[in-house]
Amino acid sequence: MATLNENYLKLKAGYLFPEIGRRTQSFADAHPDAEIIKMGIGDVVRGIPRPVADAMKDACEELAHDETFRGYPPGQGYDFLLEHIAEHEFGSRGVQIETDEIFLSDGAKCDSANIQEIFGLDNVVAMTDPVYPVYCDSNVMAGRTGKADDEGRYVGLVYLPCLEEADFAPPLPDRHVDLIYLCSPNNPTGAVLTRADLARWIDYARSEQAIIIFDAAYEAYITDDSIPHSIYELDGAKDVAIEMRSYSKTAGFTGVRCGFTVVPKQVQVVSADGAQHSLHGLWNRRQSTKYNGVSYPVQRGAAACYTPEGKKAVRELVDFYLANATIMRKRLTEAGYTVFGGDNAPYLWITCPTGLDSWGFFDKLLNEANVVSTPGAGFGAAGEGYLRLSAFQHRHLVEDAMNRICAL
Ligand code: MLT
């Protein structure tokens, strides 16, 4: 009989969002008339911007003709898109990224889960608590974490508790670590890392010869001009950091799937014999073996995000969700809740009312307001006592949800 990768048995029961889906479905089955409003998983609801959808449609048409048909895409992506990314995402902020340092993919989630397999199992991994569960679970599956303790903390991970009294900023580790996952704007807390925060992390990584895996999937939601959109806006980051981006929460691509990871050529990893290797070359090797690239129509759609009309439409979409977050923050604050995030991020991080833990608050909102949320404990032990609400919803449903929650 085939045997199992035993590390899978160390995973906590279910991936957070399917678990929330199951609880929501069982509530819906028991209450078929309830009008449930989903503000749990951060999934977008509005249509893909017209210029982007049109570009995808035209590309599909090209594929229907022998003369314009295209087969396998280039491994890292078509130049027409990579050049736009280098110019608009980085060049416009004074950051020089070469097109061949950009690897297109089916999203930041997949890249952030896959990247760890290049690294040895003996690396010490640090991640924030609370954390986007993919960083943790992908390391559990690989066998880098040991078992979880009674509170659900893996003994082999170094947790960086992001506490309210420190504005949810992660502290530097108090020991050596090799790999560090950072996410700004943060999922789930909505907090952002300042220039000074990032400079501290880069200094740490340089002195410890660590690598930072920087997830910037929500950078378009930054409204504060002083906050860096890319870690590469800071000196020295290109030696120690890789960065992930996504079109999911900007162009509405959660279902279409497209993102990219920047792997600068100078980021190095060391082998047991002491030799240094370029992470760029290894990621290229990994991707070209296990992945065949983003489809042509999707790349054309992503490229259309950088035309003047595309940029405007994407900005409107992001601003729409940010306006939702502002409404939510205002209504909940007026109703007496303590609310964080939502100003540079599409997520609000709310303190649970006295006497309720985060699953208790989740159940209360589901049962009494028919609103689906995400319990903070699902993001790690330090998420207990908080609940996340996503601003990715239609405006009238945001308003309904706020009316219901504020009336509780
Ligand atoms: C979330 O709700 O945290 C996100 O939708 C998850 C994701 O982007 O994979």
Distance between termini? 54 Å
Give the bound compounds.
D-malate
Written as H for each helix and E for each strand, in order along the chain, the element string is: HEHHEHEHEEHEHEEEEHHHEEHEEEH
Low-confidence stretches: none
Number of helices: 12
Shape: globular
Radius of gyration from the alpha-carbon trace, in angstroms:
21 Å
Strand order of the largest sheet: 2-8-7-6-5-3-4
Task: Please give the share of residues in helix.
Answer: 25-40%
**Percent of sequence in beta strands:** 5-15%
Q: In total, how many beta strands?
A: 15
Nearest-integer average pLDDT: 97
Main sheet record: 7 strands, mixed
* Protein structure class: alpha/beta
Description:
This protein has 408 residues and is an alpha/beta fold. It contains twelve helices and 15 strands. It has helices at residues 16-30, 50-63, 79-90, 108-114, 133-142, 195-208, 237-240, 279-290, 296-304, 308-334, 358-369, 395-406; strands at residues 37-38, 102-105, 125-129, 157-161, 179-183, 211-215, 241-246, 259-262, 268-270, 276-278, 339-341, 347-351, 371-372, 374-375, 386-390. The strands form four sheets. A seven-stranded mixed β-sheet has the order 2-8-7-6-5-3-4, sandwiched between helices. Strand 6 (211-215), helix 7 (237-240) and strand 7 (241-246) form a beta-alpha-beta unit. Helix 10 packs parallel to helix 12. It starts with 15 loop residues before the first helix and ends with a helix. The relative contact order is 0.17. The mean pLDDT is 97. It binds D-malate. D-malate binds at residues 41-43, 109, 187.
